[in-house]
Amino acid sequence: MPFALKHDGGDTYRLDLSGRLRNADAAGCEDELAKAVGHAGSIKLLCVLDRFEGWEAGGGKLHFYAKHGDAITRIAIVGDERWRSEALMFALADLRRAPVKYFIAADLPRARDWLAGSLDAGTGTPHSKG
């Protein structure tokens, strides 16, 4: 299976994507995310692209976003630089109220800090303490 969703502590869930994500897999992933949202109310999502090969053409339905989009309060995507533009587009980064930020694979700890709110949403730099 090219995706795995697991609770990563608190209100954070980790979504691992690998291989080529087919439309049927994307639908299954949306179902799992909907369950997490139903359980937690709102979540932060850490999406990790590992040995990722892209998406099957013809996907990208907006029904999940319309129904659950506001319940995902922050999204950090971690992966190879080559997927930055497509991943942000797939996550509907420009349509969301919630911040979405892309990190290269080596920055996984920084992505976790950003999700936790200890880094500024816009710049990814530490918050100043006064």
Any overview of this molecule?
By secondary structure, the protein is an alpha/beta fold. Helix content is 31%, strand content 32%. The protein contains 4 helices and 5 strands, in the order ββαβαβαβα. The protein has helices at residues 23-40, 63-68, 84-90, 108-116, and strands at 3-7, 12-21, 43-55, 72-79, 100-104. Strands 1-2-3-4-5 form a 5-stranded mixed sheet, sandwiched between helices. The longest helix is centred in the N-terminal third of the chain and has 18 residues, at 23-40.
Helix/strand/pairing category: alpha/beta
Integer average pLDDT? 85
How far apart are the termini? 46 Å
In the predicted model, the low-confidence regions spanning at least 5 consecutive residues are 126-130
Write the H/E string, N to C: EEHEHEHEH
Percent of residues in β-strands: 25-35%
Q: Provide the spatial order of strands within the biggest beta sheet.
A: 1-2-3-4-5
Rg, alpha carbons: 14 Å
Main sheet summary: 5 strands, mixed
